[in-house]
Specification:
The chain has helices spanning about 10-20, 35-40, 55-80, 95-110, 125-130, 150-165, 205-210, 275-290, 335-350, and strands at about 5, 25-30, 45, 85, 90-95, 120-125, 140-145, 150, 170, 175-180, 185-190, 190-195, 195-200, 220-230, 240, 250, 255-260, 265, 295-305, 315, 325-330. With about 375 residues, it is of the alpha+beta class. The chain has 2 domains: about 5-40 and about 155-220 and about 310-360, FAD/NAD(P)-binding domain (3-Layer(bba) Sandwich); about 90-145 and about 220-305, D-Amino Acid Oxidase, Chain A, domain 2. A 6-stranded mixed β-sheet has the order 9-2-1-13-21-20, with helices on one face. Strands 14, 16, 17, 18 and 19 form a 5-stranded antiparallel β-sheet that branches. Helix 1 (about 10-20) runs parallel beside helix 6 and helix 3 (about 55-80) packs across helix 9.
Length: about 375
């Protein structure tokens, strides 16, 4: 019988890729839902200066950032597709010397744990604008060379291609979960399918998929609207920009700059651009980088982040069933931690020793 992974976002595809490479027969199932978080995600990989201080989340974020180079090299052997991953550095912005000192000390203390943090130094406004020219005039920054970016859509496509290269099967249809005598199975257009194990990684849709078998996750969709603008400047080496707010900015090699993002709790699956949401991301982005005022607005993407009871993901086995693993709730950290969490869930599914104690992320907490 097959191992079935439900959900082909960054987490589900990472799980499927990990398992298939180890000789497991995997069926990856995905439905065409609007607002998948991976397709809309920004792609900042920089836990070295972060507004979120939860040590359990940082444990995953640190390991996730360190894991990226290894994964990218592995994918070069299994796929000829680009991932968009680049070590580009990061600018953590501060309004005064107190801000800069705090950010500097935070990054330096994390560098004591891992060399991946890289160089850490304070920059005045002129030095910061040399790295990110459109930046506002009244801020300074702490530069962290270990900041990185990744294109979530490209990475997901590379993982999927690697999964299929090793014999993995993709089923693109909406399925349902059902159970019998403590075992979960799936209901498909082909009929009911008994499976060795179900790994549910369907993002914000996981709660609804579990409802028919009586499992209630504390999980809800949080809408994020994120703007992509295009400039005539060469942006390929621009660092990610991290103001001391929930917003951020990053650039890609195609002269594209991303402004993110709204955090609309209580949105449900309302797949709409809103006047207020678009205004918010553009206003925040242009406040930080007024030099992009004449950039071309290319698109605004919508994604539904899977948000649990806190910022920590929901990971682990469901005790009422012998063959069910839940992996969701990555919230705004999906592209930072998703590939690494995929590896951890793969280890759990195979009965291997899991590198991280998953009890902190109990899916039914």
């Amino acid at each position: 019988m097959k191992q079935v992974v439900v959900g082909a976002g960054i987490l589900g595809t990472s799980i499927a890729y990990y398992l298939q490479k180890r000789g497991v027969d995997v069926l990856l199932v995905d439905a065409d839902f609007k607002g998948k978080a991976t397709k809309a995600g920004a792609g900042i990989v920089c836990p070295w200066v972060s507004s979120r201080k939860d040590p359990d989340l940082y444990r995953l974020a640190r390991a996730g950032a360190i894991y990226y180079p290894e994964l990218v090299e592995e994918l070069k052997q299994d796929s000829d597709l680009e991932t968009g991953y680049q070590l580009c550095g990061a600018l953590a912005l501060g309004q005064d010397e107190e801000d800069l000192d705090r950010l500097y000390q935070e990054a330096v203390s994390k560098r004591e744990e891992t060399d991946f943090v890289g160089e850490v130094r304070k920059l005045n406004n002129e030095e910061a604008k040399e790295m990110f020219p459109p930046l506002q005039d009244d801020v300074s920054a702490v530069y962290v060379s270990g900041g990185a970016r990744v294109d979530g859509q490209k990475l997901n496509e590379a993982l999927l291609k690697g999964f299929q290269k090793h014999g993995g099967e993709l089923l693109e249809e909406e399925i349902s979960l059902a159970s019998d005598d403590g075992e979960v199975y799936i209901e498909t257009g082909r009929g009911n399918m008994a499976v060795k194990q179900v790994i549910l990684a369907a993002g914000a849709w996981s709660k609804d998929l579990l409802a028919p078998i009586g499992v209630d996750l504390t999980l809800e969709p949080q809408r994020g609207q994120i703007a992509h603008v295009y400039t005539e400047q060469d942006t390929r080496d621009w660092p990610v920009v991290l103001p001391q707010t929930s917003h951020y900015m990053l650039a890609f090699e195609d002269s594209r700059v991303v402004f993110g993002a709204t955090r609309e709790t209580g949105s449900g699956f309302d797949y709409r651009l809103t006047a207020g949401g678009v205004h918010e991301v553009l206003h925040e982005g242009l406040t930080v980088a007024p030099g992009l005022r004449d950039a071309t607005l290319g698109e605004v993407r919508i994604g539904f982040r899977p948000m649990g009871p806190d910022y920590k993901p929901l990971l682990g086995r469901v005790s009422d069933f012998d063959n069910l693993i839940v992996a969701t709730g990555l919230g705004p950290s999906g592209l930072t931690i998703g590939p690494y969490v995929g590896k951890l869930i793969g280890q759990l599914a195979l009965g291997e020793e899991v590198e991280v104690d998953l009890s902190y992320y109990d899916p039914l907490r």
